[in-house]
Amino acid sequence: MNPGERGRLSGADAARVLALGAVLALLAALFHFQGNAVNVPLFGRSVFRWMIARWHDPSGAFMHGWLVPPVSAWLLWRRRRELAACPKRVSLAGLAAVVCFLALHALGVRAMLPRLSLVAFAGLLWAMPFYLMGPCTAGLLFFPCVYLLFCVPLSFLNSFTFPLRLFASAASVSILNGLGIPCARTGTVMTLGGGAPLSLDVADACSGLRYVLAITALGALYAYLSQTRAWKRWTLFLASVPFAVAGNVVRVLVVGIAARLLGREVAAGLYHDVSGYIVFAVVVALMIGAGAALNAGIRRGEKP
Amino acid sequence: MKSSGLGALLTLVALLAATSLGLLAFRDVRLIGETGLAGELPAKIGPRTGRTPLYCRSEECGNVVSDEPGAPAEACPVCGSGLDPMSPAERRLLPADTTVLRRQYTAPGHDPMLVSVVFMGADRTSIHRPQMCLEFQGHRIVEERVIAVPLGGDPPLKAMHLGLVHVVQAPDGTERTAEFTYTYWFAGGGTTTPFFMRMQMAMAAERVLKSTAHRWAYVSILAPRASAGRDSAEVARFIGRLWPLLSAPAP
Questions:
Q1: ipTM score here?
Q2: Taking the domains of chain B in order of start, what are their residue ranges?
């Protein structure tokens, strides 16, 4: 190559760049301009616009969605050298995955189920490199792409709000009675005795659902980064659900005890200002403890 | 095969383009307009007489007036704006082809019952998960169960029955608590269900498999709740009278 030709693309390379541009443009067309069929005047045709509107759901259960794409991007960045070193080959299994995720997207649009389209989008971000670059690349991309699913707003999970509220109030009442603070429960309303009766309602915001969703995302990340074996990762990830529920019960308990000992105003202040931190402190402590226990090896002689 | 070969990239372009064209060609489904329900609510249900609440079109005003028989209200008596059977928030948030019927049924010695029927348009988001709307309106749900409403010789109608608590704060800071029951079910394609998810799945399956979309209706009844755990018998009796009138429209 002479100096004048340096920096120029060959014909084949230019065609590849053009084709790659076409892939990106078509991906944008499919998901940004044809991705949504739900309430088009309000959300437009973009499935991303629909998703971001859901992240701002007043329940606050999906606010962690904003953090997920940057975390995925970071997970990808930390594997960049391994990705570059992967042997590259076209994979027909990857092509089959591309076809499946495109069909899922079409199904999502046709059935007016934009969550399916979002799953298809994350799937395509994994399947297209799988097809073009092979299974080694696909293996490294798998978790960062799966992690994107945590930003899909699963609003139907709100139906667990009421059972979670009932559980938090029932568990808190049992523990408060065990601690010697007389407490009765009607539905989700706790009435504390031992003085002037004091009622506290475990309202929707106290159901713990928003913590369950955010903490499972955190649990998945922690399990991926702290464990090396698949069963340990799954154990730690699945444990994040009961950890989040337990953290929420501790929160309701602390607010209940504060209400009894320090008065309703202090308890209300505690609830608004610091109760979220109580949940996270409890859950992070439980998660680190469980992670350490798994790393130490449950069976003697097991490799961590 | 060469890495990231041009052929593979072009195959990908072809697949994405074909999906895009397919979506353009087959995105829309045929809307089946009939819900199988009456187009208006009955004037009387048992001893109760119905009045249609009308909402001031001005969201700042927020006034609600009752349309009296023989003297239809035409403008808001507070601000003079026009009146609408849908609230400004419903107009803003729901798709334009959504239809709402609403009537407050009252009679001396009987609990008032506010009946709402939301008819879905071409877009399924005309009907939301009811719990979400109630929470946005400031209600707290304290009870949630399915009740079976006896319908004479027909199989009972299953409806979701919620207990609601609504705290209203007066300007002087004092709080007043009002308790309600909220009973609802969904009807469409000749079937009913108390479960939102089941309705969604039925709609999705119909859109994908038959390329049609029945209009579904969401029927709800808001009534006062005297005390926690109160029997839902009165609401069930009311539904037992309402549903045969609503689900068997005059030919």
A1: 0.78
A2: 36-50+102-247
